[in-house]
Amino acid sequence: MKLFAASAIALTLVGSSQAWWDVGHKLVAAVATSHMKNAHSIEQVNNVLSYMDTLYNDEVTEWEMGNYAAQGSSRPKQESTTLVQAATWADVAKSFYNMQIFGIWHYVNIRYDPDNLNCDTSVDVDAKTQMLQLSSDIPDTYNGRQTAHWYAHFGLNFLVHMIGDVHQPYHAVARCMMYDGEVASDFGGNRWTFITPANESTNLHSWWDSGQTLWGNDLQAEIEASDPEYTEFAAALIAKYPITKLAEMGYDTDLAREEDRTRMEESIDIWLNESFNLGVDSYDAAPLNGMMEQSYADEAHLIAESRVVIGGMRLAAVLDGIFAETNFPAFDISSTSTEDAASVKSEADAAESDGGGVSTGALVGGIIGGVVVGAIIGAVAVKMIGGSKSSSANANTEESRVELS
């Protein structure tokens, strides 16, 4: 797939599609909502999405849009009873609920080294490892367990978000560069700056995250209870990019494979390869540390729109497959008790013991607060991160990546 060829696609825009910060993630989820076909899977997704909100919203505090100094102390309202709401749950939790430990789940560092600098971009845990973990655990390990509701909700929210993330080209590539006199990674384009046609300075990663700056960049802390505007916007993009056109653009459109969860790794590799190649093409065409031309911005935006649509179609197929044979009941508040909380904590302690590492469960539980939420997230952290060692090994990478997605 070659990006930015002179005759690649007609440069006609529709609306102002936003990709990969809040509205972009929600558009991916809105496309997925309209494309899920398995009635049982749809019911199961809705059941899982009904589980967690009350536990978060008892700590809600007021937050002013754009007040990033309040991150970590403010508690915006968290709702995720629809896929569209769930799509940005991971970003809000990371930025406002002190869940930075999961920051490394948002990208894959595939090395691009055109100058043979041999930088180190390797990590032990990333979006690919966690998508594989969750796509297996939700229907297998979690299904049928007494406390599976909570694990499944956490996992579904992250899976929806990560599938959106890896369709953004700069969540799948890390270029080697000289930075402050040393060989280093550019952290997915975060270290390359340029001047936009609007005479604004930005970096390559943020520019793609923001849908080429055609929308506001503020993180939406309060996830809306209503989805109609996203549904309408997604419908316009689906009409503009039907699956036949996506195939013509070079995207893999084998949605039957995406639905087969035994082939999940094959599917993920295809998504990542597409994003990586688009990122490489964009590097080659971008005015790194220079002035951007409008023609580059226009064509990049069309690519962003198409990635939102194909990402949503693939997410729908994945969810149809994962939930085809699960049996999660709808949330019943009468079944939630201190005994359930104790059971969750016991499972967290067991997972911690199996992990053989430091008390990540206690660490995350203490940060987030609350017996149930702390124990649940702690158990997930130990199981999927493998203790604090892996997280610490990647701390510098995530700290340098400033994206919110």
UniProtKB/TrEMBL annotation:
<dbReference type="Pfam" id="PF02265">
    <property type="entry name" value="S1-P1_nuclease"/>
</dbReference>
<dbReference type="GO" id="GO:0003676">
    <property type="term" value="F:nucleic acid binding"/>
</dbReference>
<keyword id="KW-0255">Endonuclease</keyword>
<keyword id="KW-0479">Metal-binding</keyword>
<dbReference type="GO" id="GO:0006308">
    <property type="term" value="P:DNA catabolic process"/>
</dbReference>
<dbReference type="GO" id="GO:0016788">
    <property type="term" value="F:hydrolase activity, acting on ester bonds"/>
</dbReference>
<dbReference type="GO" id="GO:0004519">
    <property type="term" value="F:endonuclease activity"/>
</dbReference>
<protein>
    <submittedName>
        <fullName>Uncharacterized protein</fullName>
    </submittedName>
</protein>
<feature type="transmembrane region" description="Helical">
    <location>
        <begin position="362"/>
        <end position="382"/>
    </location>
</feature>
<keyword id="KW-0732">Signal</keyword>
<keyword id="KW-0325">Glycoprotein</keyword>
<keyword id="KW-0472">Membrane</keyword>
<keyword id="KW-0812">Transmembrane</keyword>
<dbReference type="GO" id="GO:0046872">
    <property type="term" value="F:metal ion binding"/>
</dbReference>
<comment type="similarity">
    <text>Belongs to the nuclease type I family.</text>
</comment>
<keyword id="KW-0540">Nuclease</keyword>
<feature type="signal peptide">
    <location>
        <begin position="1"/>
        <end position="19"/>
    </location>
</feature>
<dbReference type="InterPro" id="IPR003154">
    <property type="entry name" value="S1/P1nuclease"/>
</dbReference>
<dbReference type="InterPro" id="IPR008947">
    <property type="entry name" value="PLipase_C/P1_nuclease_dom_sf"/>
</dbReference>
<keyword id="KW-1133">Transmembrane helix</keyword>
<keyword id="KW-0378">Hydrolase</keyword>
<keyword id="KW-1015">Disulfide bond</keyword>
